[in-house]
Amino acid sequence: MSAALYTDFTFASSVVLTALGCVLLGIVRIPSDRDPAAVGKLRTARRIFALSCFLLAVPGYVELCLPADSMTDPALIAPFTLAAAAFQSLLFTALLITFIHPAWSTRRRIGRHLALVTAAAALYLVLRFAFRLEWTTGIALAAYLCQLVCYTLLFRRQYAAALRRLEACYDEDLHYRLRWVRFGFCAALAIGLLASVSAWLTPAAYNLFTVVYTAFYVWFVVRFFNYAADAGFYLKAEAETISEPIPAPEFPAPEAAERAERLRQSLEAWTAAREFTRCDVDTRQIAASLGTDLPFLRYYFRTCMPTDFRSWRLELRVAYARELLAGSPFSINRISREAGFASSSNFYRYFREATGETPADFRRRTSETSSK
To answer: Which of 36, 53, 231, 310 could form a disulfide with 17 if both were Cys (CB 3.0 to 4.6 A apart)?
Structure first.
């Protein structure tokens, strides 16, 4: 494959990435009627992402200034590729953590990481080109792999904490809401690993790699738009700084009995109105709609009910799904939504745990029974 075709692919990718960065900064507007803290964090994430696009586009423009016979020379390309990959790993990790834990992304923290990566990259490029020490590439590659390992551990820790906060806030199984974040990090990690050896790929393989990472960035810009539209869901748990369920306090017997009776009646009305089918409503809102607060709601389920609120609500949803499966022509996916399951995978899992059969098997069995 000719150097000209290689340059065309790289330049086209740089143009696309530059356009994505400009779209993020100049065209995409984050609504200002949200919570000020949420708006600030979203704008920080947008700037990080735009900067990531611009940095990744730089090598493509630099290569246009290089002699044609050096455009596919690994000895020349590898140092710049490794330096760019180190910045990309930092910026992408910071971006994804900003999505799930905005408080982590402070200017001081990101500045420290950026200063360290900048110093290491500058030292490597000086040693490689000013002093022509080719062996420094091996050390730089090892340092880059260590950086990926450290950022992977950091992301996993923040991801687990974010999932705990979400589930404590909503009393739901919400791993599916963060699945795209984990996929995005794994995909970015795979691209980072490929980037570390991309300078030694054949021109055809490198062009394919260029197409893959460009397509990934386009996909992630779309995901960013979706996140911005639904950011309130994630940031609500962050704002409440919930990391563990709030312990239910003890209440004096007369007060507890009176409040428990009122709550029991409210729960009956809440169940009759099928409010349990509403998803993405945090438990504090549910408690307020029941005329109580979150501590007493948990106290009530701990002392007056055989199960906790999350399990009780799941039982109601499964029971309602069984009614719909037996008596409605709706598709199984629609029934899962009607019953309050935002994720089809969660619906299948919980339905099977509760009934011992899949929704399709249950519908088939009840249909055969009623036809006899």
So the answer is: 53
Contacts of 229 (CB under 8 A, 6+ apart): none
pLDDT digits (tens, 9 = 90+) for 211-223: 999 999 999 988 9
Question: What is the C-alpha separation between 301 and 310, in angstroms, rounded?
Answer: 10
Q: Name the token pair of 108.
A: 């001081």
Q: What are the DSSP calls for 105-165, one per residue?
A: --HHHHHHHHHHHHHHHHHHHIIIIIS--TTHHHHHHHHHHHHHHHHHHHHHHHHHHHHHH
DSSP single-letter state for residue 6: H
* pTM of the shown model: 0.88
pLDDT in tens, 155-167: 999 999 999 999 9
Sign for the CA dihedral angle at 83, 67, 50, 161 comes to negative
In this structure, the dihedral spanned by the alpha carbons of residues 208, 209, 215 and 217, taken in order and rounded to 10 degrees, is -160
C-beta of residue 64 within 8 angstroms of C-beta of residue 11: yes
* DSSP annotation string for 273-307: TTGGG--S--HHHHHHHTTS-HHHHHHHHHHHSSS
Q: Which of 284, 74, 82 is closest to 196 using CA atoms?
A: 82
Query: What is the distance between the alpha carbons of residues 10 and 59, in angstroms, rounded to a whole number?
Result: 8
